[in-house]
Amino acid sequence: MSVGLRAEGLEFHYPGGPPVLTGLDLEVAAGERVAVLGPNGSGKTTFALHLNGLLELQGGRLHVGATDVHRDLDRAALVELRRRVGMVFQDADDQLFMQTVADDVAFGPANLGLTGDARTARVERALGAVHAGHLAMRTPHHLSGGEQRRVALATVLAMEPDVLVLDEPTANLDPFGRRQLAELLTGLTPTQLVVTHDLPFALATCPRSVIVADGRVVADAATIDLLADTALLGRYRLELPYGMRLV
Amino acid sequence: MHAPDGFLEPWVAVATGIIAAIVLAFALRASERELGDRQVPLAGLAAAFIFAAQMFNFPVAAGTTGHLLGGCLAAILLGPWMGMLVVTVVVAVQALIFADGGLTALGYNVLNMAVVTAFGGWALFHLLRRVLPRNATGVIAASALAGALTVPISAVAFSIEWLFGATTNVSFADVFAAMVSVHMLIGIGEGLITGLAVSAVLASRPDLVTGARDLTPAELGERSPVGAKPFSIGALAAVVFVAGIVSQFAFDHPDGLEKVADDKGFGEVAKNHSFANSIFADYATQGIANERVSLAVAGVSGAAITLVVGYGIAIAGRRARPAAHV
Amino acid sequence: MGGRHARNASRDRATNRATSLHAHLHLPGHTVVHRLGAAPKIVGVVAFAIAVAVTPQRAWLVFGAEAAIAAGTVALARLPLRTALVRLAPVVPFLIVAALMPVVGRGARVDVDVGLFTLRLSREGLWAGGAVAAKTVLGATASVVLASTTPVPDIIGGLGRLRVPAALIAIVAFMLRYVDLLADQLRRMRTAMVARCHDPRWLWQARPIATSLGTLFVRTYERGERVHQAMLARGFTGTLPDGGRPLHQPPAREQVAPAALAGVPGLLAAAALVAWWLT
Description:
A: alpha/beta, Rossmann fold, 4-stranded antiparallel beta sheet, globular, C: mainly alpha, two-stranded antiparallel sheet, 11 helices, about 5% strand
């Protein structure tokens, strides 16, 4: 299942700090995969944290599917939003906090009220989707970077989200791990937002990209076209890896 | 410091266990009230930090190394309830899984290493801050001194538990003198590391130092360099001096303190209490005089610790208010 | 012991498995001690420790029985003796203290011939020192047996089944989960210092190390906040699912040993209590 999302004029600043989002507009259709590019400090992660209600809306409007994500969502609505918008964080160690991989994957479904066989089935399905079934009884802190990343993805997939948000998913991955992850993501149905610096990865997984700078969307086009515009990239401290050329 | 099974009588284990459990229950409630759904991840990570900090060794002299207790540091950074909770978890897991400290000794181990250090440390820190400058330097100095003092205080607590429930006939006097002297030395290291660690946290995330929440940004900026060498050497000198006095209390040299006791009339007071005939009947002493001095010291130090820890508990919930500016 | 861990070593993110805390813990096996359920095992271990602690000083028969049970359990669990002894290391300083008790203790002296000379030792102190040494070692052995035969997640599950408050066991679980990571970070900070020729030998040179401790605290606290966010993102509302116990049971559990086995230390505790009451 997948739903679209629509952000209109999002504004945000951290307590006592300067504005981080200054009127961000973005519309993503159901099932689309969009890469969110941009220099450090541009507000990409801050925007992402709005999508599952971890940051409260300060200005503007946000819709995830038919749900209006406004301030003061009640607890039930927040849990439902977090089921629908699954977030994979930058540091896998931050989200693999249980004793075993299976427990981590079961955490989400358990919070959703699933028990017994239903819960076990979800866990097995999610681990299967990322080809990590054999890691079920392993301890998270003894996994390799790539394994951790896949398991982190599984912990989120177990909640059967409609939207998947990934924050720097290729950080600390070796080339094989990156390719594995790209293949995984392109095979999943939820709408995807991939916040990344990894331009080749964006090209491999997302047909469309946006550039976020100074808290707003400043470019929105097909990934291949964006990456071909070196001048545009350069303006926002983005560039293709050394020696890479688009064909 | 992680006493194993069997050093103290079972009833001491039970009594201290009950006290520790009650304080733990309050600590769980207090931290839940303060942190809400952040309690588990923050306390868990903080406990991991204290565990790692206790494993971490720092140089003491000529290549020998020492280890941190961490209760005072935990209290200053996290507040006394959280500090006590977190150290308790560390001590309990060390006993259950790492054979470091006896399972039946958990009562007094938690009392000495978590309750006394966290609340006693917090109380001392608070009192020291009253007399030290109201800025970052003051906080750092108070942390260092409080950290240094909690270690011998912890040793005193153990000695008093020994007085009540030793399973062997080594006298309170000997245990007190030996443990307190040694732990005063150990305290120097704990104090220095505590002060410097608090200094580092103050420099990057002052909001994470619960003991400094009342400082304004301007006050936080006032810091003069803390001299590690002068602190170490000065503290060492102070410890040697005090240890010299305390060691006079040991069995072989009762005269100095006994004279003081007789002069001040403690001797008479102790004789009027029938303690000598009841709880301490089994513990052999050499002469009535020494026993009186022992009781006096035990009484005074016991009362002092109780007052300090009690004060720490009493002010634990107080929200410090920034000083009024004219 | 090395062989069992080599399998995991190549996939390990921890820089040095040998120093990882979890290397000091569970040694996989299929003995009856391993197969005993965690909750009864914990009860057994605690009962044994209590039995040992209340054993009267001079009840050397009871001590003998306890030692036999301890040794027997270690053997039954196929724990290599060397491993068991290494894990008992924390008790050594206290054994030294116990050895000093006959020397500094009061009371009637007894002459003990040691090689070329005779020591005048306190008779009380000899009994007391011996008892304390026995209790120290036996109590610690209980914990070694538990940790060596029970994986940490099972211990946490066992504590949960024993009605330890959910928040408490969750805090324990998170602590054990992250302690390796933090110890690693600290070690790496140290390595970076050594690479810049910092080799402190004296206390006042400890400033960089203490500063790194402070830095670690900040990083740890911030990680705690991020973990909290990750928990929220997966639907956490403040109450831990399943009371903080493990959420996923492995499908086919191998035959569990009868829990009644753990009752043996319980009987022992009873015997010791009786002995204590009689003296």
